[in-house]
Amino acid sequence: MAQPLIEATNVTKSFGEVKALNGVNVSVPEGSIHGLLGHNGAGKTTLVHILSTLLQPTSGTARICGFDVAKNGQDVRRAIGLTGQFASVDEQLSGRDNLTLIARLLGANSRQARSRADELLELFDLTAAATRPISQYSGGMRRRLDISASLVGSPRVIFLDEPTTGLDPTARVGVWEIVERLANDGVSVLLTTQYLEEADRLCEEITLLSKGSVIARGTPAELKADVGQRMVTVTLASEADIPLAVKALEHAGAQPNTQESGAVISVPVAVSSDLALIVRALNEAHTEIAELGFSEPTLDDVYLRLTHEPGGQPVPA
Ligand SMILES: Nc1ncnc2c1ncn2[C@@H]1O[C@H](COP(=O)(O)OP(=O)(O)OP(=O)(O)O)[C@@H](O)[C@H]1O
């Protein structure tokens, strides 16, 4: 199997008494988008700082494109791009000047730097705003500039920190398309995000961190299948039929839940064919269905359950 471009093996990090990371493993292949999820303080920033050589791990190893972050810092820094709270651009400078400056800092001469800046401005649809100070950019433009700034050195690995926070839905989709394009071009992306919809849409694999430990890992579909619950929601035509319907459903082997008032019954189901069983049981009990809904588990269910229940156990390292 090809070597992963991002690899953390049993990484721990302590700040005095605080154990910010506790034996974390992460592996991201070439051209893959990996989501790092967790509450504030879970250890996401600490891990990204270690992977980008801004911090040394207390123990364990981390490699980027095969380079050890503790021993080959310069090679690692050449291979990566940082965005968001991990890096900054100058608000007073124009988009073009920011990108040119970064290219010069990375060793390009002024002609090469200007040409790389213009190429990225074009790619990210910012040419028209190239000479405006970025303090005047909209949120979506600013985020596109942030990402383009991290790509000046053509990195093979990029760390994206909450790339769509605060953006409107159109701008958010625009950023998602850019991230997908990067992965298609072979860039490995480590994405920290609070938006589970974003992780669901973009990430091939997700690592869920809690208090410095990995508590779940898998594809979005695997995580949802493990933890989430499919649910059928039935609204009856008459609230008076609720006791009859509940009895019929229980008799059919289902586990109906009702609310304090109203004509709604929700029934957890394992397979979609259970839907037919529910409808048949209600028909046979002569209760009239006004509305029928079927909901798949979401990543929110996974996240809430694993991060709020004491049962959220770290996965083996
Ligand atoms: N320099 C530091 N000194 C002491 N403690 C620190 C330091 N940096 C981080 N911590 C602690 O380590 C833990 C992990 O913090 P970290 O910033 O990595 O979490 P996070 O998941 O990135 O949170 P957020 O989503 O808020 O950025 C927290 O308890 C934090 O207080």
- What is the CA-CA span between the terminal residues? 20 Å
Q: What shape does the CA trace take?
A: elongated
Give the SSE string: EEEHEEHEHHHEHEHEEHEHEEHEH
Give, in spatial order, the strands making up the sheet with the most strands: 6-7-8-3-9-10
SS class: alpha/beta
Percentage of β-strand residues:
25-35%
Count all strands and give the number.
14
Poorly predicted segments: none
Helix proportion range: 25-40%
The named CATH superfamily of the largest domain: P-loop containing nucleotide triphosphate hydrolases
Write down the overall mean pLDDT.
88
Question: How would you describe this protein?
Answer:
The protein has eleven helices and 14 strands. By secondary structure, it is an alpha/beta fold. It folds into two domains: 6-225, Rossmann fold, CATH 3.40.50.300; 230-296, Alpha-Beta Plaits (2-Layer Sandwich). The protein has a six-stranded mixed sheet, with helices on both faces. A hairpin with a 2-residue loop joins strand 9 and strand 10 (213-218). Helix 5 (139-150) packs parallel to helix 6. The two termini are 20 Å apart. The mean pLDDT is 88. Adenosine-5'-triphosphate (ATP) is lined by residues 15, 18, 20, 38, 40-46. Belongs to the ABC transporter superfamily. Drug exporter-1 (DrugE1) (TC 3.A.1.105) family. It is found in: Cell membrane. It holds the Pfam family DrrA1-3_C.
